[in-house]
Design brief:
By secondary structure, the protein is α/β, with parallel strands linked by helices. The protein has two domains: 1-37, no CATH class; 40-229, Rossmann fold (3-Layer(aba) Sandwich). It has helices spanning 12-21, 23-29, 33-36, 63-72, 86-97, 108-117, 130-136, 140-147, 161-170, 206-217, and strands at 78-82, 122-125, 156-157, 181-182, 195-201, 222-229. Strands 1-6-5-2 form a four-stranded parallel beta sheet. The model is unreliable at 23-27 (pLDDT under 50). Bound molecules: zinc ion (2 copies). One zinc ion is lined by residues 47, 49-50, 52, 61-62, 64-65. This is Competence protein ComFC. Belongs to the ComF/GntX family. It comes from Aerococcus suis.
Length: 230
């Protein structure tokens, strides 16, 4: 007997088949067909810059991206796997809220595929605030990458206000509104590899924008951001 990690439904027939061939992945992350059907995968038609699902041609910019361009002269280079809908939120709550890291590997096959295109790049996970890190005990972005067997470097940190003050005396002053800082444990030498930012969700684009700003201050350009959901 095996239970869906999201809704708890069991399916003994699936076990009989999977038991034999896929015992390991079964134990880690089995989701029932019903829960899987709630994910909306983003296919060919999406906003050309932020990856949001559209029903138009790829070349079109969505309203969010038009605003970014107009207000900050910024364009994201984001790719997402699924739409940020109820089905995805449920998965995310299971991971972040419940702390059930079994579900962290759910998107591993798709991420591993993308990784093959960006093997040369340095993958940088978006850090969690220290408060979230403390309550949850893990940073979901690093857990998801580790599960997908994608190497990463934590170039960015999300310090507390006190840590931030201390860092500011040593580092270039960043905008007060930006929660991220360069990781002081990483000696900054000239980084030539392209950078891929990784986060669980792209909502307004602000997180990716702010992370990019910090890296830019270190003469590092982000070529791509990958998020599970948009
Ligand atoms: Zn289920
Ligand atoms: Zn867009």
């Amino acid at each position: 007997m095996i239970n869906c990690a999201l809704c708890g439904a069991s399916d003994s027939q699936v076990v009989q088949l999977r038991d034999i061939f896929l015992w390991r992945s079964c134990q880690q992350q089995w989701l029932c067909a019903e829960c899987e059907s709630h994910f909306q995968w983003i296919g060919e038609t999406h906003c050309s810059t932020c990856g949001r699902l559209t029903h138009q041609l790829k070349e079109t910019l969505c309203a969010d991206c038009c605003r970014w361009l107009e207000n900050r002269q910024w364009q994201p280079h984001n790719y997402s796997l699924v739409t940020y809908n109820e089905g995805f939120k449920r998965w995310l709550i299971q991971l972040k809220g419940v702390g059930d890291i079994r579900v962290a590997s759910y998107f591993s096959p798709q991420l591993q595929k993308i990784y093959q295109q960006y093997r040369e790049a340095i993958w940088v996970p978006i850090p969690s605030s220290s408060h979230n890190l403390q309550t949850r005990g893990f940073n979901q972005t690093t857990v998801i990458l580790a599960e997908a067997k994608i190497p990463y470097q934590e170039l960015l940190i999300y310090p507390t206000e006190t840590q931030k003050q201390a860092l500011r005396t040593r580092q270039e002053r960043l905008s007060r509104a930006n929660p991220f800082e360069w990781n002081p444990n990483i000696v900054h030498q000239h980084i030539e590899e392209p950078i891929v930012l990784f986060d669980d969700v792209y909502t307004t684009g602000m997180t990716i924008y702010q992370a990019e700003q910090v890296l830019k201050q270190h003469q590092i350009n982000v070529v791509q951001s990958i998020t599970l959901a948009r």
